[in-house]
Amino acid sequence: MSAPLLSLRGLSKSYGRIQANRAIDLDVAPRSIHAVLGENGAGKSTLMKLISGVEQPDAGMMAWKGEALALASPAEARRRGIAMVFQHFSLFETLTVVENLRLVMPGGRRELAERLIRLGREFGLEVDPFVHVHALSVGERQRVEILRCLMTDPELLILDEPTSVLPPQLVVALFETLRRLRDKGVSILFISHKLEEIRAICDRATILRDGAVTGTLEPRHHDAQALARLMIGREM
Ligand code: ATP
């Protein structure tokens, strides 16, 4: 593998007596789609919170392009080039798309709308910047969330269970967007528990069970049952 964009070594996090992440090792290559796979409670969200600066680890280290990385906040993660699309969207319903963007980034209405349209065309995320969020479908809202991240020019985009809100035809479109992003040099961390999706889209997968890594592999070279054994300790 080429020198990793992001490396985690021995990353651990507990909430009281619950050890949500146990000594996690993980390397994300540049220009790759890397899955973090695990069933409910395996520790995926906790790990993403550590990588996106929402929470801080109790032990272990992170490195970004070979240098030690300590993230005090999500804003700091964004400044370093790490952006996260959360499973539950955080857009203001009564504002337009571009007004939502103006809440979190500098720039005039017209300038932001133009960037949004350009990025939308480039990555298959077309959305009208002047429409109110309450009029958008779930798929369009997700596009806005992804675009909002892309406007910070990330090198790593984290998506938390992005297909859970989408009908099947939009999953195909999302995957096309992710491939385009990878081809333009953005790495993706793709959190999921859906084995077939991971086999379809991801270059590598790290599997978590009870907060610990049970394996890292190239999912397209393994069948779903092999992934299930690592994820839940048996076949499905
Ligand atoms: P899901 O898909 O259900 O979100 P997950 O794989 O993302 O699951 P986490 O949300 O990271 O798993 O949770 C890992 C463990 O840590 C679980 O036992 C969970 O109950 C616990 N946990 C997570 N966040 C907290 C918290 N803020 N306080 C206490 N326990 C927590």
Task: Give an account of the 3D structure.
This protein has 236 residues and is of the alpha/beta class. Helix content is 35%, strand content 26%. The chain is built from eight helices and ten strands. The strands form two sheets. It has a six-stranded mixed sheet with strand order 6-7-8-3-9-10, sandwiched between helices. The protein has a four-stranded antiparallel sheet with strand order 2-1-4-5, with helices on one face. Helix 6 links the parallel strand 7 and strand 8. Helix 3 packs across helix 4. 36% of the residues are buried. The structure holds adenosine-5'-triphosphate (ATP).
SSE layout:
Elements (H helix, E strand, L loop, with lengths): L5 E10 L2 E11 L4 E5 L6 H8 L7 E6 L2 E3 L4 H7 L1 E4 L11 H8 L4 H15 L14 H13 L5 E5 L7 H16 L3 E6 L2 H7 L2 E6 L2 E6 L6 H9 L4
Bound molecules: adenosine-5'-triphosphate.
Short description:
Belongs to the ABC transporter superfamily. This protein is an alpha/beta fold.
**Shape, per Cα inertia axes:** globular
Bound compounds, each kind once, are: adenosine-5'-triphosphate
Main β-sheet, in a few words?
6 strands, mixed
Number of strands: 10
Radius of gyration: 18 Å
Give the helices and strands as they follow along the chain: EEEHEEHEHHHEHEHEEH
Annotation field: number of helices: 8
Average of per-residue pLDDT values: 94
In helices, the fraction of residues equals 25-40%
Structural category: alpha/beta
Approximately how much beta-strand content do the residues carry? 25-35%
Measured distance between first and last alpha carbons? 31 Å
With strands numbered from the N-terminus, the spatial order across the biggest sheet is 6-7-8-3-9-10
Family: Belongs to the ABC transporter superfamily.
Protein name: ABC transporter
Organism: Aureimonas endophytica
